[in-house]
Amino acid sequence: MINIKNKKTDEKVEETTQEPETKPETNIESKDSQIAELTNTLKRLQAEFENYKKRADKENINTIKKANVGLITELLPVLDSFELALKDNNCGNGEITKYRKGMELIYTQLYSILEDQGLRAIDTRNQKFDPFKHEVLMVKESDEPEDKILQEFQKGYFLNENIIRHSKVMISKHVEEKKE
Asked: What is d(CA 155, CA 153) in angstroms, rounded to the nearest whole number?
């Protein structure tokens, strides 16, 4: 509706304009495009939600793994004590042998549980010193190659991919024999 004032009579003349009728074909096309747009929006929202669920699950798993680090780190001295107790090969009478066998079973069970949680020992046999895995406590002159691990004083461990304790080792320092 348009209001126009007539200058001579100061009367308002109302003129109505009608919108052109929309053709049914264009109305259907606009609804089809609207449906396609809403469908695309829905698909995007579903994909975003799936990604959110995956990310939340991954964060929960990482949180659980990080929570286990503290507990497992506190259990490492217990493993060390078991290994030290089982290291002695002096088997006396039958009672001591039974006691030792029981301790071996307990140690195996505990170590198996910790392995299931992702614990792995750092291998030092016939290895070269790696500062990311090993801590040097002693250096010994030897005819062995430079930085070869000669002895392990305390085991080191990985928990999943992370080192939670470095291996404490003695490494070699190569000495050339003097020829006279």
From this structure: 7
Per-residue model confidence as pLDDT tens digits over 99-130: 888 889 999 999 999 999 889 999 998 889 99
CATH number at 140 reads 2.30.22.10
Residue 52's pLDDT is 95
CB atoms within 10 A of CB 104: 13
User: Per the structure block, which two tokens stand in for 88?
Assistant: 């002695």
| Mean per-residue pLDDT, 150-164 | 90
In a domain, residue 139? The reply is: yes
Residue with the two structure tokens 């792995």: 120
- The whole-angstrom separation of Cα 2 and Cα 91 is 112
Q: What is the pTM of this model?
A: 0.62
Query: What are the tokens at 167?
Result: 């291996």
Report the percentage of the chain scoring pLDDT > 90. Answer: 44
Range 136-158 average pLDDT: 90
Cα 172 from Cα 146, distance rounded (Å):
6
Is 144 within the bounds of a domain? yes
